[in-house]
Structures are given as structure tokens and as C-alpha cells.
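Example record for the data management plan.
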Amino acid sequence: MNGKRTGEELVEERYCRIGEVAEATGVSRRVLRRWDEIGLVSPSRTWSGYREYGPDDLERLRRVMVYRELGFDSDRIREVLDAPVAAVMGEMEDSRVALEGKIVELQEILKTLNKLISLNQAEEGFEASDSTPVSEDCNQGAGEDDGDWSRQARTRWAGSREWLEYSERVVTMSRHDRKEAGSHLVEVESDLAEACRGGVDPRGEVAMDLAERHRGALYWYRVTPSMHCCLARMYEADGRFRHHYEELEPGLTNWLVEAIDCNARRHGLDPAKTIWR
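Corresponding structural encoding:
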């Protein structure tokens, strides 16, 4: 089977010692002894106690190797060797169904693995920096085309630890879960805009609580309070993000940045000294 030894060359009118059988079949002496102990293949013994495999033993061994190759365990092999043909066919059908299910499962695993690898393959010449924040949302796009923004983010951040975490979540989250998480972020951003519009003090508890909710809503990777401050700097500097927040409510960018900084202080951090970690 697939170029493996089956022991067929030993099936002749003579007796073979365990070493010959092991050499011809590739089954170790230890396994052969174990099969003898459990009654799977029990050869006769010489007067001095050595195992001798006759033609019938070797034929049984060949059948054992066939079913082992098919994935049957020792107990099932013992059952099928002495079972009626109809029962053996039933066992084979059961194994086929189980194997087909496993193949489907493995294909799904391979599909997920390929997606994960593809997402993490950096563009040619790209060098990741662990000190630079990953863009917060590769699907939002801050008003740009989703596909274009995703490609830009991948080109810029592929290779970073956060991008790896992002890709792990993307490929394992269901469409429903991603939609729910996106809807939650939209809800949080709406509450931020409403608070800014209503004149809520960005340095107060209400604003800091909203900033904390915003940090938790960034589901693409784990965002620490320190990382949140780094993202806030990006909201100020990157026109795409500023445009996104200003569209929600004029002045929201600066309001949110101040709320994030105040929330960082509540966590015992100095916003001016925070780093991406």
C-alpha cells in the first residue's frame, strides 16, 4: 500500500522468526510482540520459546497491516478479522463516513490556515516595526473604499504582532460575530458623538467611561490603555481618521483624544510618555 511493505513475500510454505517478519514488513519486534500478547497475531512457538510465523500467521498479519493502514485500532481489527463479510463491509462503510467527515474538517482547517498565511504575508520590501500602532480598523476605512483601506493596512502593518492578532480574529470570527462587533463600535461612536454634541466635559467621568467603552469596542486586537493613547495620536495626525470622526460630529476628534488621555491617567499612565505596548 503506497509502496509500503506488506509481508506478502513471506507468505510461503515455511516458518519465519520474528526478526525476519519485522525486517520484511517494517513492523517492529515490539509491536509484533504486543500483537501476540493481545491475540491479534499469535504465532506458534518452538520448543525453546521462539516465535515462528507460519503461512496462516503471515496471512493474518498481512490483513492486520491492511486494516491498520485504513486507520482501524487493534480492537476493531480483531473484530473484522474473524467477522462475516457483511459485518466487515459495515465497518468499512462506517470508516468511510468518518473519514469523509474528517476530510471536510481538515479542508476547513486548511482553508483557515491559508487565509491566515495570506493575511500575514507582507508586501515585498516591507519591514514591520513593533513600536508603531496598527491601524485600528481595516474594514471601516475611515470613509475610504473598504478593499483599498484593507490593502493599505496590510501593506503597512503585516508582520506586526497586532496584525497577526487581527488576522487570527478575522479568520475565526463568523460573519455574524464580525457584524455584531462592528455594530457595537458604531453604537459606541454614536454615543461619543452625542456626548461631544451635548457638551459633556471630555475630562469628566462620563467621557472617560465612554473612552473606556471605545477601547473595548476595538475588537481587532487587544488594545491596552497605553496603545489607546497611541491610537489617539494617530486620530489627530491621520487625516483619514480625523475625517471619519469629524463626520460623526465636528470637534469629536479632539474631544475623543482628550477623553482617551484622561482615561489613561485614570489607569495611572502619563499620555505624553505612553508607548505602543
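Summary line stored alongside the record: Residues 85-119 form the longest helix (35 residues).
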